[in-house]
Amino acid sequence: MDILLEVIETISLKILKIKGETMAVMTAPENTPVWVDTARCKACDICVDACPAGVLSMKPDAGSTLGANIEIVALEACIGCNECELSCPDFAIYVAEKKEYKFAKLTDSSKARQEAIMNNGYRLPEDYKEAN
User: Fold this and answer.
1) Which of 18, 32, 48, 60 is the residue whose CA sits 20 to 30 A from 125?
2) Beta carbons within 10 angstroms of residue 96's beta carbon
3) Which residues, including other chains, have CB under 8 Å from residue 103's CB and lie 6 or more apart?
4) Is residue 60's pLDDT more than 60?
5) CA pair distance 59, 69, nearest whole angstrom
């Protein structure tokens, strides 16, 4: 089946259209680089794996499909690469436009946080301390 996917972005809205029909409208939070629609998240971990900056982590959530849900653990570290948004099969995560937000640069601290998350089953270790 060939599905035409189109994401129309404006300053305050992200509109998901499939085959020309509007499927979802998400209002962008002000001054936020990345945000999540947790109701759509199915805890597949794909976005956490895709994020090079350690911005995302999974957290336990008994009410979700797989017993976990996405959590933004380092909002200020988002580099705006869109890898999380592009990899999410459930269209549950969104990244601001570069013209709307000044994103961070990828740092060694962000890379270390991502490695810690990956080595801990896609979850930020409870005892994790940021490297300065």
Assistant:
1) 32
2) 24
3) 33, 78, 79, 80
4) yes
5) 5
